[in-house]
Amino acid sequence: ANVLSERIGPKGIDWPSALAAHAQRLEAARDALWQRKSDPAEFLGWIDVPEDTETLRRVLRFREAQAWVEDLVVLGIGGSALGAQAVAAALGKGPVRLHFVDNVEPEPILELLRKLEPHKTLVNVISKSGSTAETMAAFLAFRRWLEDRLGPDWKRHVVVTTDPAKGVLRPYAQAEGLPAFEVPRAVGGRFSVTCPVGTLPLAFAEVDLENLLAGARKANEQARAALEHNLPAQTALLHHLFSQKGQNIVVFMPYSTRLRYLPDWFVQLHDESLGKMRDRAGQEVRTGTTAVRAIGTTDQHAQVQLFREGPHDKLINFVRLLNPSEDLEIPAVRGLEALDYLFGKSFFKLLDAEAKATAHALAKAGQPNYTLTLEQLDAYHLGWLLQHLMWQTAFLGELWNINAFDQPGVELGKEYTYALMGRRGWESLAQELRAEGVE
Ligand code: PA5
């Protein structure tokens, strides 16, 4: 399968010499990542997850035993929802409807609760920390709703995915005898799509999980390879070099409506991993580039004007499919001969022409871009792409000497929320907020 980018090395960089100049650094990054992966404190467990076929078998057995499910509700946020949502939108099929509750806005939750039939609904609460306020609030609501309608049978309708030990969900699942899957200790939320965080909901969406993991293993092979075949090291270098040249915005733009949620997953992976105030030595560095979502062709009619004529502060990463899974011919219609350039051509040909034309038009305007190509949109190639992007993020973390696997910047907001919600132990922070006029 051709999963390699066909156009590495956009204009603006002398690619062979850039690669040669950074070879030592990239090889050191590669070796460091592979060496550190056995240390759980390094949060590199996502590298090995695609090898874990035993857990996948457990997930599939669990799914088979729940043939009664018609609606699966995923309660999770950030890394605990976006991966499954992206893959389900791209490849999901089958009779089970998936619903993602990743916000605490009351109206959509009420709308969903009014629509669901409790006897046919399974709730998968997913939280690595087992304590995220949004997910916990949603769980409290869905648990009460299930118990009110089903009595003690509610327990058959909940499955938990959480840390092996930490948080409130693990002991709760044990105490109530709920089925529970693990987010491995060394796997952080945004790197968790190939573990049960992603695979359990995706099993209900009938996604070919064996091949999803096989694709991820292919990306692992590339990430281990010598530099000339090491695609994530190369794309990380592109991001690094262009960020140094002032391209502080990264546009992630697949040409596919089926991949419409993939940019959301990428934005979270990229921004939360790489936007860091301090390097590993504690020095203030303020790293990061801002990832932006776009979908081709749709956003050609929204953002491409800015991409082409606005400031050259962007690196655009297109994702293009090389083959459709089905195609449709554009018919000839008498009286509309002005459109005869379309007659008899296929929709995929038009989509592909638009992708190539846009990339070329941007390159001509001096707007750097590169394209990752997928032979087709299936589980194998999507698994590859997800893992490739995780590797790219890890390589960038190494190049910038930061910890790509923590998120200290979101903690203070969480603390303030606890204080505003009256959580025990947060009284003095609540007082501080009141003094600052936040109530
Ligand atoms: O990537 C991350 O670590 C975060 O985005 C988390 O996934 C998100 O905050 C949800 O956390 P949790 O799974 O602990 O509820």
From TrEMBL:
Encoding gene, per UniProt annotation: pgi
Cell location: Cytoplasm
Protein name: Glucose-6-phosphate isomerase
EC supergroup of this enzyme: isomerase
Keyword annotations from UniProtKB, A to Z: Cytoplasm, Gluconeogenesis, Glycolysis, Isomerase
Record family assignment: Belongs to the GPI family.
GO terms (BP aspect): gluconeogenesis; glucose 6-phosphate metabolic process; glycolytic process
Chief location category: cytoplasm
Signal peptide (residue range): none
Any GO MF annotation of the entry: carbohydrate derivative binding
UniProt catalytic activity: alpha-D-glucose 6-phosphate = beta-D-fructose 6-phosphate
Catalytic residues, chain numbering: 272 (proton donor), 301, 414
GO cellular component: cytosol
Enzyme Commission code: 5.3.1.9
Pathway annotation from the record: Carbohydrate degradation; glycolysis; D-glyceraldehyde 3-phosphate and glycerone phosphate from D-glucose: step 2/4; Carbohydrate biosynthesis; gluconeogenesis
Known function: Catalyzes the reversible isomerization of glucose-6-phosphate to fructose-6-phosphate.
